[in-house]
Predict the structure.
Amino acid sequence: MQYKAPLRDIQFVMHELLDSESHYKRLPKFQEADRELMDSLFEMAASFAENELSPLNQSGDAEGCHFDNGKVTTPKGFKEAYQQYCELGFPALSAEEEFGGQNMPFSLSTVINEMVGTANWSFSMYPGLSHGAIQTIEHHGTDSQKETYLEKMVTGEWSGTMCLTEAHAGSDLGIIRTKAQPNDDGSYSITGQKIFISAGEHDLAENIIHIVLARLPGAPAGTKGISLFIVPKVMVNEDNSLGENNNVVCGSIEHKMGIKASATCVMNFDGATGYLIGPENRGLQCMFTFMNVARIGTAVQGLTAAEYAFQGSLTYAKDRLAMRSLSGAKAPDKVADPIIVHPAVRNMLLTEKAFAEGGRALVYYLSHFADTVAKGEGDDLKFADQMLSLLTPIAKAFLTETGLEAANHGVQVYGGHGFISEWGMEQNVRDTRIACLYEGTTEIQALDLLGRKVLGSQGKLLANFSNIIQKFCEENKDNDEMGQFIRPLAKHLKEWGDLTARIGMQATENPDAVGGAAVDYMYFSGYVTLAYLWARMALIAQTEIKNGNSEHAFYDAKVKTAQFYFAKLLPRTTTHVKRINTGVEPYMSMNVDQFAF
């Protein structure tokens, strides 16, 4: 499938929904990012994604990565595409000017990452991990570490990884075993094995800077005893030239369900030289800089899956002829009607469209808070950080699950053709499935949302967002055209608060109630969050139509998609509420031994 960047909708969200130019003017470091600059960047990224990356998507999947004695070779065309990616300045976009970056807002990088990722998600994994590594060193590294690593990483000459997971530990980082032994020269000897390391080894960059979690001797047990280290693949000399290879070797690459053109590596650290970044035993706190960026990036993958599925499905549904419309022939000059006339097909198309465009609004909305956290001050920064804390697990979990649903619809619209590789729909399902797993599974994100963010803050974080939605409802309650959106949104907002209170009460009697309710609570939260954004988009579209905007068809489609979302997708919350209200007992009543086969 040939990807086409949805520039008009990207501009709608960035300019009309979020008024990004005004947002940037409130942040002194970003005032140069005006609309003209934004649009030029978007067009540049669109051209690169469409012409360079999209043609490599299916061929890269078919070829995969090659492993030979610790060395990884990426599929044909990837090295040249990566070189062009770097020449366009995309790795440097959001990095600090001091180290060669362009100091542009994180939200602009998010837009570019969407286009790059939709065109070729496997490719996007290579520079994607570098962004988080750069930010981690920017935030927590010493001046010397910044001078040593950042300039080359910002240009893309060197890439970065995050090395967290171990075979026995998975997401439970408190039980990792990788050790860090102090050396006399102030460095550390890192020994252990990490698995599932995306872009851990490849041929795109001349050095790879690993950000590694490990334990110092005598460190406290659990997450309180984890430290963070910079471990380069190739040692860096005092003059910043490359020296000898470090004792870091790729042991193998995984044979995976999807993202086959992205190298997922087993990395062996055998007394590798590393350098402490941040305070001792505070590595997990430092790593959250990396993890939050990665989780927003994974939310983007859910959006890309829905967008890719929608584009492929729409093209196919307009051309494919099958049966006649039940209300009468719509293409009487043809042997059958195009399948887009059938309600069942339109249901799938509109679901894909609603999740793609709603997901875009949520990710960009979230990234604006990330801008403020990066460069804001005072109360604005504090509020943005709280909003980011609440919305990140919702975006990561909800958008990846709905992205997977949309990808499955993509296969279904094509019928049998969707099941074969020619059309790209089955690859989209395979590539997207991982998004619900890495950077914390859906279930872990749901626990984080309900347990840590909502109940853990005594409801403060949820109240912040509820106040925003409540204010929007109040401002538009007398708008007759908006009634179809405002009334159900206000009803669901109240239900969100009531539901939270009920779960909190249940948890005082049985802590397992939080675990039992968490996933359904996440879905409820996600549907209501998207409902708020769809209502805002509908208001803008209705206003433009009233004002006689010449793009009537575009804005009318926005209103109709919002109507579909409220009529057909938002009611799913009823099931999630009923499931929560039955409590945790149906999960826990059976003895472990009764799980037999």
User: Anything to note?
Assistant: The mean pLDDT is 96. Residues 283-319 form the longest helix (37 residues). The chain has 18 helices and eleven strands. The CA atoms of residues 72 and 201 lie 6 Å apart.
